[in-house]
Design brief:
The complex is a heterotrimer of chains A (559), B (255) and C (200). Chain A has 21 helices and 22 strands. Chain A is of the alpha/beta class. In chain A, a hairpin with an 8-residue loop joins strand 12 and strand 13. The model of chain A has no long low-confidence stretch (mean pLDDT 92). Chain B is mainly alpha-helical and 255 residues long. Chain B has 11 helices and 2 strands. Chain B is flat. The model of chain B has no long low-confidence stretch (mean pLDDT 89). Classes of the chains: A alpha/beta (559), B mainly alpha (255), C mainly alpha (200). The interface between B and C is large, with 66 and 66 residues. Strand 4 of chain A pairs parallel with strand 1 of chain C, so a sheet runs across the interface.
């Protein structure tokens, strides 16, 4: 019998007229790994809720069709009975910690205590799931003191310990940095190899192409196709669903490498034909026009939160001209650096000059009209009842008139694509949309310098394209753009100049193409090359390739 | 991380007494000082409480906690000393004001009671981990849902406090001033508190889901990971406390 | 938004999880008020919000837990006032349920009522435990003046509490009202326990 079976599932949230899930049917067999793809509004999360009984029992609303877990009908059973068989892990690692347990070991025990598992079995299961998730050394730590990646593994361990038949993962890495992402994918791979039945919604298509037996493509609450990864990623209309194929399939498409017999593209390295001969476009670096922007000059900058521990250690750099990416692992000092630029922190030594004036002589609030800083987490700033009021808060603070602020806010909401949601409550939007609101709220202040801290985290491929468009536009308007990023594919696509940060120092500052050739610096900064660069390298070419458009043609040796 | 509690880690006999007995002590110690209005008896109870704090090696830690109540004590001494309704005997004069013996005597009594109240709670708070107390209450039949509430408060508040720096940065980055006139400062209150409130209320949804997934609402028997700790002398101590309390009540009734 | 039952003791998981969050909000309200050097405590916003969202009983529990936790972590004297906080939660919960949060004017009345109730409950506590003072400078000054004019202790103490509690609670309730009005739909819906599953 199948582990999971959906028959014509339909669902509407309360007070909503739209079907979040519309006529969905599929089955999952034991040991399968099923991926779910689609854009942020496709209904992936709702589907995950429906598979674990939260829809309809927790959310209520209108429910049609049936979901069976084994032979258990979801509608007639309580959540606690359903989740004994289905484990769910979702995006935000922080809110999955119960908050009532002071060690990782006890945290994992929470579900087992509720289930009334005998004490000796409990200890056994906790140890087993800690071993599976590689978190044995964390067992005495407070869950809230962990990194995102560690917390997410604790969340998975807590669910696994309850011995579910199916594990459902709803974008488990979307709020994690690359290191945390790798940690989590590593254990997911391990679980899959142990024969666990897994259903995973995910934006990182390379990973799905690697693990999934089947992929469900969703759009507007409908199941568009249920097929193999090759079938899904070879679809010509993938873009219409806001899904970017994995980089191998993308390159294969650019090079026209469709298999004539099956009509499919290769989606992983092993499927690439061995006898390729790829031609590359000549390397063109400069942009259409070099623009004059504001200029930030940093001289001998030092800063530490505690005495004797410099987070920023003697920086000298001039920031001006085309958009600049700052990369490097967590704790390298990137966010501290931009806070210094914005005068939210005071340097211990050294100085920062904006167009010839020392910024140490001004306050953050006064600097607000010159330098805009968009923080990583929009929830740290949003407090107004409507999107438009939120976006107008900054402009009004820096002395724009009401009309001016409204005009700017409308313009920026149009730019980020949220004008029609201007009167909604920001917290009724998705996190990805709230990030866009926070972005608009800074852009509406119309500053000469715009600094982004991780704008692409949690965005789907359309969101990322939007961010790129905004960065390009800001440069067009003659603004200086500085951007902290973990997403190297995005860096390669978008930025001409890249700074590699490590331990409060710059390891490299120069052309992005050259940056990704600095193998030693990248290793020290613990940054990987972009997927496309790695791919070209693994095919045996020496070139540093950054974009698809740099592939010209191929001639296969046989032809 | 767990900087919410005043608990002081020591190896002492008081630390080894079970939390419920200490809870009983707190109640009886405070109630006795309010049942009796004899200065010497109240002083005696206070000294006894101090002795327990000393045995628990936490006497130094109670001083800042008493310090928090300084304003309360000061206002009691001043207001009662000068203005208590039963003022007849002048103790001494300060300029145009007189301190009265009756008021001062009452102020002194209340001060002893307040210090004893704080110290008696100190015996519980300084020598007991909050999770041990909740665990003990849970095993005595406190609803697990209420136990969850008590424990999670201690974990969640530090998380929320940690947010404050980020929020302040984010709003200052948008040109909000946190200094200036009263109205200016008042206007900054909502931009600072708003994100915390909205975040934590929105988060209740995800946390509810997380708890539901882990069987929080399951009916039926639960088990405990940790075994009941074996505290010694629990029963005799409690008998002694109750006996003392009955004596106080009887004494109060007959005198 | 009408709730089906005001006095239910069947707490949903969402209501349980609301309690620690509301206590945290109280805590941070107080913290920000002191950072901004505001002349008020504003330390009951979470209690009032919880009452508005989930009814008087949850509000009362928030109030009690708030003072227990505050007593445990900062100032044991606040154990005494757990009862006052509970009364605030109950009063705000009942009146919110009866519709006293439909506009600003009503919210001000709600604030006044909550302030008076807080004062009524605090007065006997203040008299029992410390012969009537509140340790608020302005309130205690009034208390001293009234005693000097030979007014009765209970009246002086009550006036002391009124001066302390009413302005603070009016501001607290107004701020809570503003926040409550601006809460997103998905939060309000979660606490509207009238929801049923509709079978399509």
């Amino acid at each position: 019998m199948s582990v999971l079976r959906l028959e014509n599932l339909k669902y509407k949230y309360p007070a909503s007229s739209r079907f979040a899930l519309n006529d969905i049917s599929f089955t999952v067999e034991k040991g399968e790994f099923v991926g779910i793809v689609g854009m942020n509004t496709a209904g992936k999360t709702t589907l995950c809720y429906a598979l674990s009984g939260l829809v309809p029992h927790f959310f209520k609303g209108a429910y049609g069709g049936d979901v069976y877990i084994g032979d258990m009908d979801v509608l007639t059973h309580e959540i606690s009975e359903i989740t004994a068989n289905v484990g769910l892990v979702f995006e935000n690692p922080f809110s999955q910690m119960t908050g009532a347990k002071f060690t990782v070991y006890d945290e994992i025990a929470f579900g087992l205590e509720n289930q009334g598992i005998p004490r000796d079995v409990m200890h056994e299961r906790i140890r087993e799931s800690m071993r599976l998730l590689d978190i044995e050394e964390l067992q005495e730590k407070n869950p809230f003191s962990l990194s995102g990646g560690q917390m997410q593994r604790v969340a998975i361990a807590s669910v696994i310990a309850m011995k579910p038949d199916v594990l459902i993962l709803d974008e488990p890495t979307s709020q994690l940095d690359p290191e945390g992402t790798e940690e989590v994918f590593h254990v997911i791979e391990k679980l899959a190899q142990e024969g666990m039945t897994i259903i995973m919604a995910e934006q990182k298509m390379e990973k799905l192409a690697e693990y999934a037996d089947r992929i469900l493509l969703m759009h507007n609450g409908k199941l568009i196709e249920d097929g193999t990864p090759e079938e899904i990623f070879s679809r010509d209309d993938l873009n219409d669903f806001g899904v970017e194929p994995p980089v191998y399939a993308k390159i294969a498409r650019t090079l026209g490498m469709r298999d004539d017999a099956t009509g499919l593209y290769p989606i992983s390295l092993t499927q690439m034909p061995a006898n390729l001969d790829i031609q590359f476009a000549p390397e063109v670096e400069s942009r259409l026009k070099e623009k004059d922007t504001a200029e930030l000059i940093v001289r001998n900058l030092h800063f530490g939160y505690e005495k004797g521990q410099d987070v920023i250690n003697g920086l000298n750099v001039s920031l001006q001209g085309e958009p600049i990416a700052i990369i490097g692992q967590n704790g390298a000092g990137k966010t501290t650096f931009v806070k210094l630029l914005k005068a939210l922190l005071k340097p211990d030594a050294g100085e920062i000059e904006l167009d010839g004036t020392l910024i140490s002589k001004t306050t953050a609030a006064a600097l607000a009209s010159r330098i805009g800083l968009i923080f990583q987490n929009p929830n740290d700033q949003i407090f107004k009842n409507t999107v438009i009021d939120e976006v107008m808060f900054g402009p009004l603070n820096i002395g724009q008139s009401k009309e001016e602020a409204l005009a700017n806010a409308n313009k920026m909401l149009t730019l980020v694509g949220l004008l029609e949601k201007a009167d909604e409550n920001p917290y009724d939007l998705s996190l990805a949309e709230r990030k866009m609101v926070a972005m608009a709220s800074i852009l509406a202040m119309n500053t000469d310098v715009v600094i982004f801290d991780e704008p692409t985290i949690g965005q789907d491929s359309r969101g990322k394209a939007k961010v790129k468009e905004i960065i390009d536009l800001l440069y067009e308007q003659g603004k200086l753009v500085i951007c902290i990023l973990h997403d190297m594919d995005f860096v390669a696509e978008t930025f001409g100049r890249t700074i590699i940060f490590s331990n409060g120092k710059m390891l490299f500052d120069g052309l992005t193409r050259t940056a990704f050739a600095q193998e030693e610096a990248l290793r020290i900064a613990r940054v990987e090359q972009p997927h496309i660069t790695k791919l070209v390298r693994s095919l045996g070419y020496e070139q540093i390739v950054l974009k698809e458009s740099e592939f010209l043609a191929r001639s296969t040796a046989g032809n | 991380m767990n900087n919410m509690t005043l608990y002081v880690q020591r190896d002492s006999p008081v630390h080894r007494v079970d939390p419920l007995t200490k809870l009983l002590f707190v109640f009886i110690s405070i109630a006795s000082t309010y049942l009796v209005s004899d200065h010497l008896v109240v002083l005696g109870i206070l000294l006894f409480t101090f002795a327990i704090l000393l045995t628990g090696k936490v006497f130094k830690s109670i001083l800042p906690v008493i310090g928090v109540s300084f304003l309360l004590i000061a206002s009691i001494i001043i207001v009662q000393g000068f203005f208590h309704p039963d003022r007849t005997t002048v103790l001494f004069e300060v300029g145009p004001f007189s301190i009265y013996k009756e008021g001062f005597s009452i102020a002194f009594l209340i001060t002893l009671r307040v210090v004893n109240m704080v110290s008696a709670f100190g015996v519980l708070i300084l020598t007991t981990k909050p999770d041990d107390l909740v665990e003990a209450l849970l095993q005595k039949g406190l609803s697990p849902r209420f136990g969850y509430v008590l424990l999670s408060v201690l974990q969640i508040i530090p998380q929320m406090v940690a947010l404050t720096g980020k929020i302040t940065d984010a709003q200052r980055a948008r040109g909000m001033e946190t200094e200036g006139g009263l109205w200016m400062r008042f206007k900054s209150f909502l931009p600072l508190l708003g994100p915390v409130v909205l975040n934590s209320l929105t988060e209740t949804r995800e946390r509810s889901i997380a708890l539901e997934i882990r069987g929080f609402n399951r009916k039926g028997k639960r088990t405990f990971l940790n075994e009941t700790e074996d505290y010694r002398y629990g029963i005799p101590l409690r008998i002694a406390l109750v006996a003392f309390f009955i004596t106080v009540i009887v004494w109060r009734v007959i005198s | 938004m009408k709730k089906k039952r005001m006095w239910t003791l069947q707490f949903s998981t969402a209501a349980i999880v609301l309690i620690p969050a509301a206590v945290g909000i109280n805590f941070l309200g107080k913290l920000f008020a002191s950072v901004l050097k505001l002349p008020l405590w504003v330390d009951a916003i979470g209690t009032v919000l919880a009452s508005m969202l989930a009814g008087p009983i949850v509000g009362a529990i928030v109030g009690i837990v708030n003072n227990i936790v505050y007593g445990f972590t900062t100032d044991p004297v606040s154990f005494v006032y757990a009862i006052t906080q509970a009364a605030i939660g109950i009063a705000a919960g009942i009146m919110a349920y009866k519709g006293w949060i439909s506009n600003v004017g009503k919210a001000i009345v709600l604030g006044l009522v909550v302030g008076f109730i807080a004062a009524i409950v605090s007065t006997p506590l203040n008299i029992i435990f410390w012969e009537g003072t509140t340790s608020n400078v302005w309130g205690d000054a009034l208390f001293a003046i009234m005693l000097a004019k030979d007014m009765p202790l209970w009246l002086a103490s009550f006036a002391d509490s009124i001066v302390v509690d009413v302005p603070d609670k009016v501001v607290t309730v107004l701020l809570s009202f503003l926040i409550f009005k601006g809460l997103p739909k998905n939060v309000k819906l979660m606490y509207d326990n009238s929801g049923e599953i509709e079978r399509l």
